[in-house]
Amino acid sequence: MEIQPTLINAARTGDTAYLQSLLTEGVDVNINDEKGYTPLIIACYNNRLEAARLLITAGADVNAADIGGNTALMGVCFKGYPEIARLLIESGANLNLQHGNGGTALMFATMFGRNELVRLMLDYGADRNITEFRGLTALDLAIQQGNKQAVELLDTQT
Q: Looking at the domain assignment, is residue 120 inside a domain?
């Protein structure tokens, strides 16, 4: 049995019992696939809160990134999973990491209308002044997307 696809698949489906058995056998919780996805990135992207919690408890790197520089926090801000975002942040995720084009988790939340996550990221201290590769901030992206609620949040919160 090849461990990496098995562990990634268990994270994808949220099979915590199988994840636990693999972790008990001592598999590397931070193993990644050909795209750089770790089990934690996959669990988070697929809204598997309990699997994410188990992986973090087992030592998963909350700031690990895929080959494009995308982290689990960026993925949940794109998809819109505030519970998992809170878990990642409270487990030490860096709110201000930038992927290959300079985007941040806050920018993902802004661009995709995940305004509950915009608020959450700001409440936890995400830097609203970071610029991506074109020089745009999260506020600029909110304006560009016509995301009025995010514009209000980014323009008024300090």
A: yes
Domain count, the chain: 2
Task: Quote the tokens at residue 60.
Answer: 């998963």
Burial category of 71 from C-beta neighbours within 10 Å (exposed 0-12, middle 13-18, buried 19 and up): buried
| Residue 157 reports pLDDT greater than 60 | no
CA separation for the pair 119, 101 (Å, rounded): 23
Q: 3-class DSSP state for residue 56?
A: helix
- Domain assignment of residue 6, given as a range: 1-61
Task: Identify the DSSP state of 97.
Answer: -
Pair 73, 108: CB distance under 8 Å:
no
Q: Are residues 35 and 85 in the same domain?
A: no
The helix/strand/coil state of 12 is: helix
> 80-99, pLDDT tens digit by residue?
999 999 999 999 999 999 99
